[in-house]
Amino acid sequence: MHSSNNIFLVRPANFGYNPETAKSNAFQNQIIQESNVIVQNAIQEFDKMAKILSDKGINVLVIEDSPNPIKPDAVFPNNWGSFHSNGVAVLYPMLAENRREEKRKEILESIQEKFEIKEIIDLSKHEEKGVFLEGTGSIIFDHDAKIAYACLAPRTDKKLFIETSKMLGYKPIYFYSRDINGKEIYHTNVMMNIGNGYAVICLESITDETEKNQVIKSLKSSGKKIIDISFDQMKSFCGNMIELEIQEEKNILAMSQSAYNSLTLSQKSTLESYCELFPIKIDTIERIGGGSVRCMISEIFLPKKN
């Protein structure tokens, strides 16, 4: 099963602009506003998102961020962990030192109350070597086809990506992706999303034709309809979507309101043939944090406890 009905979200305590990550994330914006106002706006957006996903039928586990140490990006937990159907949990090495604190044992304990973690593979030791791989921000898993995709960048190491993919039983496919100014895309999940039967991807960001053709061939051979998005659409986080399972109903494709507004009528029509489009308004989190709806969601594929 490619999509999950089970997710966890981390309710932010100190959300804000993170200068440690801004060097590699061109999507972040520093705005002039009181920090407490920014935090309150982010919390309001978060609470509304958690509620509407839960009301829609998603099993949402909300975990409170700890106030200390301050973790401005704690609302984006998909970067430090992935939780697989065979009971394996993987913890990933993070580039920014102030993001490494997000990997809290209390979160794993909360997950283990309802789900079975048979093995924890902790790759955090690579942080000491300056080698990074930031979870499902760096890696796009096609769980059905057992293929893993990654655009290489400071936060996504080629060798570790290949090793991790093979360890988890996935074929690794890597490439370089750059924005309209030639800057490397910081995370694969802002330029690419894979759902059941389709892939949303900014193909023009893959400048090497051989790499681009390899990605296209792989997606098509695994039965994916390609929805190609532009640089402007990528900037509006059209690549940062996630399909979630709704039991006995059509799955939803969760995305930000800005991403939804940026899609063309034709793209919306194509996507709606696969799932229900589900826009969520998170303007503060998106604009300041440089991440969108998919970054906020960590899927749980772990076996459920009886």
Report on the architecture of this protein.
With 306 residues, the chain is α/β, with parallel strands linked by helices. The chain has a single domain (6-299), classed as L-arginine/glycine Amidinotransferase, Chain A (5-stranded Propeller). It has twelve helices and 15 strands. The protein has helices at residues 19-22, 35-55, 97-100, 105-112, 135-138, 158-168, 209-221, 231-235, 257-262, 265-272, 283-289, 293-296; strands spanning 6-11, 59-64, 81-83, 88-91, 119-122, 140-142, 147-151, 171-175, 192-194, 198-201, 225-228, 242-244, 252-256, 276-280, 298-299. The strands form five sheets. It has a three-stranded mixed β-sheet with strand order 2-1-15, sandwiched between helices. Strands 3-4-5 form a three-stranded mixed β-sheet, with no helix packed on it. A three-stranded mixed β-sheet has the order 6-7-8, with helices on both faces.
Strands across the major sheet, in which order?
A: 2-1-15
Task: Identify the CATH class.
Answer: Alpha Beta
Please tell me how large the radius of gyration is. Answer: 18 Å
Q: Could you give the count of β-strands?
A: 15
- Global shape: globular
What name does the CATH topology carry? L-arginine/glycine Amidinotransferase, Chain A
**N→C terminal distance:** 20 Å
Helix-strand topology string: EHHEEEHHEHEEHEEEHEHEEHHEHHE
Q: Name the CATH superfamily classification.
A: L-arginine/glycine Amidinotransferase, Chain A
Let me know the average pLDDT: 92
> What's the CATH architecture name?
5-stranded Propeller
Q: Considering DSSP H and I runs of 4 or more, what fraction of the residues is helical?
A: 25-40%
